[in-house]
Design a protein that fits this description.
Number of strands: 12
Structural class: alpha/beta
Number of helices: 8
Strand content: 15-25%
Shape: globular
Number of domains: 2
CATH architecture of the largest domain: 3-Layer(aba) Sandwich
Distance between the termini: 38 Å
Largest sheet: 6 strands, mixed
CATH class of the largest domain: Alpha Beta
CATH topology of the largest domain: Rossmann fold
CATH superfamily of the largest domain: von Willebrand factor, type A domain
Length: 308
Amino acid sequence: MFEGVTKIGWRQRQDMDSTKHKIDTSFLTQLDRYALPIRNRVTAVHSGSHLSTKKGSGLDLVDHRKYNPGDSLKKIDWNLYARTEKLYIRRFEEDKNLNMVILLDASTSMLIPENNPNKFEYASTVAIGISYIVMRYNDQYMIATFAENVDYTKALKGREEFLRTIDNLSRISVNGKTKLSDCADSIYPKIKSKSMILVISDFLDDPDSIRYAVHRLYRHELVLIHIYDETERNLPETVDGTVKFIDGETNEEFSISVGQEFRKEYAAEFEKHMAELDKIAHDFKIPYFKISIDNRPIDTVLTIIGKG
């Protein structure tokens, strides 16, 4: 079996440092009537328009969740334990601000395909769409781009910072390998309160690295958004004979004889990688979206927020 096939793309070399990425903002006003649902309400510092789970006296009890190692024993509902013999944490209701953290893959493989939009432009458009909804509700968010390292921004809020974010993403340098495990180690100490974390990536990384990152971050409200191009999933029939490939992460070039059998192996390897991501998401009980860049960005945003 061809090793590492899911990390391969074909494209001409290009200097993306001098290229402005095209981020579609034409659909944003269509999102005005939507809010971002919060499956497990999050705790934050500033007031906003959402419900959170900050624990304290004088708050109305909302519901319970299962006890996780590291939770304060003071928050255990011992009366419920006496009835069920299971440990649950009490959750209270209080108006608080939503903390949204978007981790956006800016590794070299996100430049596939050559034509617009490439995966990075599409992922950026989706990130901006979700940020727009968050911004409209006067909540805080952060978009951090990552490859081998993480490029942070401060917590953002309001229209001016939103417009600046679009401009910054359009000019960012996209290069390097995806290393989600290092990204998770780097971002984890920066997130001071319980947050919603969206990872938008092509996930061309070792499954062990992805599993480690999910384990590191899943105590927040973690969502995986897998962006791919259809030609990565199934090689076109026009790709035939001896073909020069460029590794999407390392830029290494090599030639391969492509026929029907290779196409089958290629597709099988891609599906195997997706199945591994499915299993990781299932094991940690987190949402995992598989998104082709052929989909309209607005449809993708609505799918992610549960309105599609």
